[in-house]
Amino acid sequence: MDLKERLYNWWNERVDLDNLLAFLNHKTVPHHRHSIWYYVGGMCLYLFIVQVITGILLLLYYKPTAEAAYESVQYIMTDVPFGWLVRSIHSYAANIFIGLIFVHMFSVFLMKAYRKPRELTWITGVVLLLLAMGFGFSGYLLPWNQLAYLATNVGTNFAIMTPVIGDWLLVFLRGGTEVTGATLTRFFGFHVAVLPGIFTSVLGLHLLFVQRLGMSVPISIEKEISDGKAQREEMPFVPNFLYRDILGWTLALGLIVLLSSMFPWELGEKADILTPAPPHVKPEWFFVFMYQTLKYVPKTIGVFGFAIGGAVWILLPFFDRKSNRGEPNKLYTVIGVFVVIYMVALTLIGYLAPGE
Amino acid sequence: MADEKIPRREALNYLLGAGVGALGIATLYPVVTYIIPPKASGAGTSSVSAAKVGELKPNQGKIFKFGNSPGILVLKPGGDPASALGYVAFTAVCTHLNCTVQYRDDLKEIWCACHNGHFDLNGKVMSGPPPTPLQEYRVAIKGDEIFVSSEEA
User: Fold this and answer.
1) Contact across the interface for A81 and B36, Cβ inside 8 Å
2) Per-residue confidence (pLDDT) for residue B45, from 0 to 100
3) Of A40, A306, A281, A279, nearest in space to A140 by CA
4) Is residue B114 helix, strand or coil?
5) Cα–Cα distance between A265 and B95 in angstroms, integer?
6) Which residue of B has its CA nearest to A60?
7) Element spanning B70, H or E
8) Kind of pairing, strands B145-150 and B136-142?
């Protein structure tokens, strides 16, 4: 017996590799004209891993205090070898990550992949999006620059509108009544310990559900198959699907490194509470559609509108009975398209017509 | 092709392997260089003011900051506080396992509490596990300040 075989046998006797390999060899992914969307979730998973690795690297030099945070990021960007690259990758990948979670979510929505029996996959997925936005919001403050300081003031201020516990929630988030170094230290804790712990657990559930239920096939394709107009086709996960995944991941890393090299992420000015807000100050792009809405509607209506809208959105699989029966549901497609158009339009207005 | 030496699949596998290997190196190189921090300012300190003249009494020691590590300054028993010759200075980092040593006025020795290492006032090991003497620093007095500098400075 050669060494490879003996190693395999050693492990096989302990963790039943035969079984695992048989499982991997039999795992398949549906193959049809909408299959491309199946890769987006895997891409999000990959970007999360990139965030974990670059985040751990940043922890080697970052200092989470009001006195030292800005200077430590400056040190990373200017003195540490490849520090600019690590931080830029972390920032670019974070934004692409959130963008792709949106793409993933809307593709799932429009293909009605949330329908029975995948309601729990949908719910954990939306929770992951909210957690990712929490990552974005807390991470944005960590360089302790002026824009982040202002954005955190505005963002945390909404907490006060929460019924009953609003005041408490504001102090909980800020570590006091104002945004100070205490907020920074707290956000650091959220960003590197609390959120990663929760995110990883929910992600584990999400992946477990995906694995247990397999990929959803769109209703239209199911109908073509049952009408005999199309054949049910499957692609082996290993290696066919996985190789395509890896190819995409490699290209994504190349793109992010290219962006980071050509346009390293900016640091801005150090936070100073005496500096007034510059005109057209905006939150991070994934909050802009909500921020822009609040310019048109009263604050209370806007905030509770988004809270209720979010709650309905997360529970949609339970309302969409038609899709649950496997029938096409035009209404929900229209709702999904409307939400996408609304978010894209308001975001564009926020950027292109900042005075409006 | 009849004259094909390497099968097509094998050639592709080599190319793929080489590509993955190159990508791995291109990823690891920045990560590994990133982990090693740039030389910090302060680490290269060669001379510091360790104490003021008159701060130490004969048979007394003081730990001071020498760059990023501790040093120990001792005014010898019967030593002249106003003369550099009355003092000795060493690194305070024990040569055994890097604990910080201290001056024992009862023994008139430098002592490491971690594993009971004893050094005399020349830095030589008297007893205990330390393998080598403490590195000695030079002492000089300028005005009312006692300066300590390392030998290589």
Assistant:
1) yes
2) 63
3) A281
4) coil
5) 45
6) B35
7) strand B69-75
8) antiparallel
Q: Which of A15, A97, A11, A105 is nearest to A52 (CA)?
A: A97
Phi, psi of B51 (to 5 degrees): -165, 170
* Integer CA distances (angstroms), A332 to A109, A112, A206, A340, in order: 8, 8, 23, 12
Contact A79 B38 (CB under 8 A): yes
pLDDT in tens, A63-72: 999 999 999 9
Residues present in chain B in total: 153
Asked whether the beta carbons of residue B34 and residue A86 sit closer than 8 angstroms, the reply is yes
Q: CA–CA separation, A149 vs A155, rounded Å?
A: 10
> Residue range A13-38: average pLDDT?
95
Contact list, B35 vs chain A (CB under 8 Å): 57, 60
B30 touching chain A per CB within 8 A: yes
CB B23 within 8 A of CB A254: no
What is the amino acid identity at position A252? A
Q: Please state the rounded mean pLDDT for residues A225-240.
A: 93
Tally C-beta pairs within 8 A across A and B. Answer: 28
In angstroms, the CA A14 to CA A31 distance is 35
For residues A63 and A187, is the Cβ–Cβ distance under 8 A?
no
Task: Give alpha helix (H) positions in A158-194.
Answer: 166-174, 181-189
Q: Edge-to-edge strands of the sheet including B60-66? A: B47-52, B145-150, B136-142, B87-91, B69-75, B60-66
Integer Cα distance of A131 and A199 in angstroms: 7
Q: Give pLDDT tens digits for B5-64.
A: 788 999 999 999 999 999 999 999 999 999 999 987 655 668 899 999 999 999 999 999
How many angstroms separate the CA atoms of B135 and B95, rounded? 9
Cβ <8 Å between A57 and B31: yes
Q: What is the 3-state secondary structure (H, E, C) of A53-70?
A: HHHHHHHCCCCCCCCCHH
Chain A residues touching B36 at Cβ < 8 A: 81
Assign A243 to helix, strand or coil: helix
Of A84, A106, A88, residue with least CA distance to A51: A88
Q: Tell me the one-letter amino acid at B81.
A: P
Q: Assign A264 a pLDDT band (cuts: 50, 70, 90).
A: very high
At residue B145, φ and ψ (nearest 5 deg) are -110, 140
